[in-house]
Amino acid sequence: MSLTVNPVEQLYNEVKEFRKAEHSVNPLFLNRWSPRAFSDRKVSDEDLYSVLEAAHWAPSSYNDQPWRFIVAKTSEQLTTFHQFLHPFNRTWAEKAPVLVLVASNKQRENGDPNGAHAFDTGAAWDYLAIQATLLGLVTHAIGGFDQEEARRLLNIPQNFDLHAVIAIGYQGEKKILDENLQKRENPNTRKPLKELVFEGKVSS
């Protein structure tokens, strides 16, 4: 009999102290959180492209698939990405072995505006994050970056919106972070569901 620990079960043992669901839900959704401490362990191409393949299958309006993923995994590529991260985020994100810039096309193939491009790309990021969790990886979406510098360095056309840089890797010891970040290196909670869900109409 195999004694291999399922990554989802192992993570749940770590987060259940901090997260309690109000209703029945697969532990996978509680396990996905956003650490800042990354180990120096490399992510295999097999796992990286498994994560991107999951994102590839997200739903989208008219099946336009507006998302684009610009991947940095070599030293040279990562150094370029580090140049447009805000200093605070760079202090911890530069340890991640993979960074992925998520962008989306604002136009449909016929040139019409795509009002769903950001919504659909958010779904793709979610698929990416969930598949990463299933593989024992962690992800952290970074909004703090210089979009114009990223656009210039990566040669991204103006018809694409830039949403986030995703750090992907294996979770490291929080002691590698500075003291202030160590205090924050725990899964966060959520607002009560009753504050977010309204039946029929919005309550006053």
UniProtKB/TrEMBL annotation:
One of its GO terms (molecular function) is oxidoreductase activity. Signal peptide: none annotated. Gene3D superfamilies: NADH Oxidase. It comes from Bacillus smithii 7_3_47FAA. CDD domains: TdsD-like (cd02138). InterPro entries: Nitroreductase (IPR029479), Nitroreductase-like (IPR000415). Keywords: Oxidoreductase. Belongs to the nitroreductase family. It holds the Pfam family Nitroreductase. This is Nitroreductase domain-containing protein. Residues 31-78, 88-170 form the Nitroreductase domain.
